[in-house]
Amino acid sequence: MNENLKINLDPSQGRPVLCGNCKNDEFITTSKLTYFSPILTGTSKPLVVPMQVLRCSKCNKEITDDDLTTTNQATELVVENL
Fold first, then answer.
1. Would you say residue 17 lies in a domain?
2. Residue 47 resides in a domain
3. Does residue 76 lie in a domain region?
4. Alpha carbon distance 16, 24 (integer Å)
5. In Å, how far are 21, 32, 45, 47, 66 from 59, measured between CA atoms?
6. Contacts of 71 (CB under 8 A, 6+ apart)
7. Which residues pair with 53 in a beta bridge?
8. How confident is the model at residue 65 (pLDDT cuts 50, 70, 90)?
9. pTM as predicted
10. CA dihedral over 43, 48, 50, 53, signed as positive or negative
11. 1-27: per-residue pLDDT in tens?
12. Nearest 10 degrees: Cα torsion 16, 19, 71, 78
């Protein structure tokens, strides 16, 4: 795999991603902490891992991959109907 691959994307050719709940197009980045016991980590200490998540800035719903897929399909329908 070529790690030096550079892709030029024109933002005007993309589609906005919308919240599947309220159709807002602005998101905030938050973190969830996931705890792993020493039994799972195989060490003498527990491990806490931060995981980045996106939340809608309007309705505060956590955005999942399923939301993005649904949103993209809905956006395509809106674009086709224009």
1. no
2. yes
3. yes
4. 10
5. 8, 18, 37, 31, 17
6. 17, 18, 19, 20
7. 30
8. confident
9. 0.59
10. positive
11. 567 778 888 888 888 888 888 888 899
12. -60
Question: Residue 48 domain-assigned?
Answer: yes
Please state, in angstroms and as integers, the Cα–Cα distance from residue 41 to each residue in 32, 44, 78, following that order.
Answer: 19, 8, 47
Query: What tokens appear for 7 in the block?
Result: 């892709």
**In what side-by-side order are the strands of the sheet with 27-36?**
27-36, 47-56, 62-63
- Copy the structure tokens of residue 80: 């086709």
Tokens for 43, please give them: 């060490």
Structural domain of residue 29, as residue ranges? 25-80
> Is-contact 17 25, C-beta < 8 A?
yes
In total, how many domains does the chain have? 1
